[in-house]
Amino acid sequence: MISGSWQRKRAILACLNQGEFVSGEALAEVLGVSRAAVSKHINALADYGIDICSVKGKGYKLFDPVFLMDEAKLLTNCPNRCFYFDEIPSTNAFLLQYTEELQCGDICIAEFQSAGRGRRGRKWVSPYGSHLYFSMFWHLPLGMSQAMGLSLVVACSLVSVLQQLGADNIGVKWPNDIYFENRKLAGVLIEMTGTADSGCNLVIGIGVNIAMPQQQGELIEQPWSDLRQVISDPDKTLLALTLQQQLRKDLKLFEQSGLAVFTERWHAADIYLGREVRLLVGNESVSGCYQGIDTQGGVVLDTADGLQHFVGGEISLRQA
């Protein structure tokens, strides 16, 4: 349910999303509030990572469009329960609180995360309405041991969805990052609770850059891309619904047949296959020709000492 405060902020964004300057007087009239209240909402939106230009005599204008979910379309068309928020600390953290009450395929989506996380504890920059922040619950009956290679399966699902929506020239970087023209487009963070040989609850977190605001992009320490560079008019609601359906389909297949049935899809999208790479394993570094993945989803390198396999732990793959 959208709060009154967010309804007014959304109304402002709907006006500004037309791409033209809108005066404070016009916004005040649309919202039925004072100009001072409009200014307060504009300042609050800036705090949520939205770049808004203010010019005396002209009014306000968005530097970049904001892509909001169509809540009615999302909730009507999602076959599972969908928890949708304007703001939340973390979609993953929310689902992790309620794993015992969830069913496979239930999702959580937010327009803003105040504590979004990436792999290895990194912060995921989460400006309001600019990207997709998505988490889905899944249960593996055979425990954590059954999850071996799962992150690669999720990456394959995400590539399939983006290609269905018209994205070309995208690929995967082990273990689960999605790249467009050697710049990161999306990432995956999977968190789990359970034991090695009994039931295991998973929360699959996915972040997809849709329209990165310039100021927020400057906070990111690695090359990035966004879906606007790949698809002219991305539909975030369609992306979320298609992703939920594809993940359900692929996770059921993974439960039945394991990682082997996804190997061909992975190698078709693998941007480092056959390239010289440097693998960071903790404080060590190993160089070689990257040969793709093994049956467990680990990295295979052709090194001076022959073929070597690496799986799990603090591993980072870099182009040589």
Tell me what the structure shows:
It catalyses: biotin + L-lysyl-[protein] + ATP = N(6)-biotinyl-L-lysyl-[protein] + AMP + diphosphate + H(+). It comes from Shewanella fodinae. Residues 24-43 bind DNA. The chain is of the alpha+beta class and 320 residues long. It folds into 3 domains: 4-62, Arc Repressor Mutant, subunit A (Orthogonal Bundle); 71-267, BirA Bifunctional Protein, domain 2 (2-Layer Sandwich), CATH 3.30.930; 272-319, Roll (SH3 type barrels), CATH 2.30.30. Helices cover 30% and strands 27% of the residues. The protein is built from 9 helices and 14 strands. It has helices at 4-16, 24-31, 35-47, 71-77, 91-97, 150-164, 214-217, 236-257, 263-269, and strands at residues 52-55, 59-62, 82-85, 107-110, 131-140, 170-173, 177-180, 183-194, 200-209, 276-281, 284-293, 299-303, 306-310, 315-319. The strands form 3 sheets. Strands 3-4-5-9-8-7-6 form a 7-stranded mixed sheet, sandwiched between helices. β10 (276-281) and β11 (284-293) form a beta hairpin. α1 (4-16) crosses α3 (35-47), α4 runs parallel beside α8 and α6 crosses α8 (236-257). The longest helix is centred in the C-terminal third of the chain and has 22 residues, at 236-257. The radius of gyration is 21 Å and the shape is globular. The N and C termini lie far apart (49 Å). The relative contact order is 0.12.
